[in-house]
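Researcher: Quick test of sequence recovery. Tokens follow.
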């Protein structure tokens, strides 16, 4: 081997622990990002399925009778005149 190759190998060997630590950290970061994306996807799919399920249900409608309020307001307007 040439001296340049030997020097490069020695430098690589000296920095091997540092390089391995960086690779492990990047691997952990990649796994964490993929886990967050997968969790968001599952949550979104679950929410969409729940929304679709609820949209098919019949909604309860409440009717309000405003006759008493209307009569009261009419009485108020006739008394002031």
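Model:
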């Amino acid at each position: 081997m040439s001296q340049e190759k030997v020097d490069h190998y020695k430098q690589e060997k000296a920095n091997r622990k540092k390089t391995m630590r960086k690779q492990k950290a990047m691997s952990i970061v990649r796994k964490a990002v993929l886990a967050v994306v997968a969790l968001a996807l599952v949550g979104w799919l679950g929410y969409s399925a729940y929304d679709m399920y609820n949209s098919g249900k019949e909604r309860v409608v409440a009717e309000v009778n405003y006759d008493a309020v209307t009569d009261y307001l009419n009485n108020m307007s006739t008394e002031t005149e």
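The radius of gyration is 36 Å.
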